[in-house]
Amino acid sequence: MAKFAAITSKLEWHDGTVFTEVTQLIEVSGPGFSVASADSSDLSSSLRTDEPTMVKHGPITFRGLWDPDNVVHIALRTDAAARTKRQCKVTNSDTTPSTITFATAVNFITDWNVERNKDGLLEFSGTINCNVAPTVA
């Protein structure tokens, strides 16, 4: 299958040796982050207050056209089933490209699905749980 050309972001998954681009993607979202909070109110306060605590990075979600002959698609599925932790990165190819890299191999796929869309094409989708702060360049 030919590479899908309409997307402006690319996802790369580390195969244990090098980063490899996940081709045929239609959509890549994330990574973002969220900040948890803890109640810091006391009994003398008439107003609830919170303090920021832990930062959680990710997730990265992706969706693409499934190619059962694509070795990267098969590797992603295999890593998801085996709960393999890997490095990953997202490159946004806008006017000024930026790359968000999760360089420590502690990221893993939490959701994996292959289904037929309304046009009869097979699509795959997944979610990567990011367990380390990324570097942005």
Describe this structure in words.
The strands form 2 sheets. Strands 1, 2, 3, 6, 7, 8, 9 and 10 form an 8-stranded antiparallel beta sheet that branches. Strands 4-5 form a two-stranded antiparallel ribbon. Helices cover 9% and strands 52% of the residues. The chain is elongated and about 65 Å long. The N terminus is likely disordered. The chain has 137 residues and is mainly β.
Quick recap of the structure?
This protein has 137 residues and is mainly beta. The chain contains one helix and ten strands.
Topology pattern, helix = H, strand = E: EEEEEEHEEEE
Number of helices: 1
> Helicity, in percent?
under 10%
Distance between the termini: 31 Å
Indicate the mean pLDDT.
87
Structural class: mainly beta
What's the Cα radius of gyration? 18 Å
Low-confidence stretches: 1-6
Number of β-strand runs: 10
Give the oligomer, counting copies of the same chain as homo and different chains as hetero: single chain
Strand content: over 45%
- What characteristic shape results from the CA principal axes? elongated
Task: Describe the sheet with the most strands.
Answer: 8 strands, antiparallel
